[in-house]
Amino acid sequence: MNHQINSNIENKSNLKYFSETREARAKQILEHSKPECLDENTFLVPSQFDSNKKYQVTYFDSYSCNCKDFELRCKGKGLYCKHIKVIQLFQKLKNKLEIQNMLLNSIKINNSRNLTGEENLIKTP
Ligand SMILES: [Zn+2]
Fold first, then answer.
1. Residues of the domain holding 71
2. CA–CA distance, 55 with 87 (Å, rounded to integer)
3. What's the gap in Å between 99 CA and the centre of ligand 1?
4. Model pTM?
5. What phi and psi values does residue 47 have, to the nearest 5 degrees?
6. Ligand 1 centroid – CA 68 distance (Å)
7. Cα-flanking dihedrals φ and ψ of residue 59, to 5°?
8. Which residues, including other chains, have CB under 8 Å from residue 47's CB and lie 6 or more apart?
9. How far is the CA of 100 from the centre of ligand 1 (A)?
10. Tens digits of per-residue pLDDT, 20-40?
11. Number of compact structural domains in the chain
C-alpha cells in the first residue's frame, strides 16, 4: 500500500519534470526556428536536433503529433510533446501580437473619431 502511494508521487513529479523539460525544449526550438503552418489544423515543427526532420502536429479539438514521445508517452493521457508545445507557444505569441494590433487599431479609430468630432464642433457656428 505504501509502495503504491510512493510510486504515485514519483509518477506525479516525473510528469511535472517531463512537462517542464518539454516546455523548455519547445522554447529552444522556437528560438531557432519557426513552425510551418500547412493549414488551419496542420503544422510542421522542425526537430530540435535535426533541422531536416520535421514533425507534423495536427489540431482537431485536441492536439496530436507523429513523434515517438507523443505516441509512447503522451497519447491518451492528455499530455503534450514538445512539438505540440511549440505550436501552443507560437499561437500564444501570435494571439498576443494580434491583440496588440487590435488595441493599436482601436486607439487609431478612437483618435480619428475624436478628430472628426472636433472638426464638427469647429464647423458649427
Ligand atoms: Zn511531437
1. 2-123
2. 11
3. 28
4. 0.71
5. -65, 145
6. 7
7. -130, 105
8. 53, 54, 55
9. 30
10. 999 999 999 999 888 999 998
11. 1
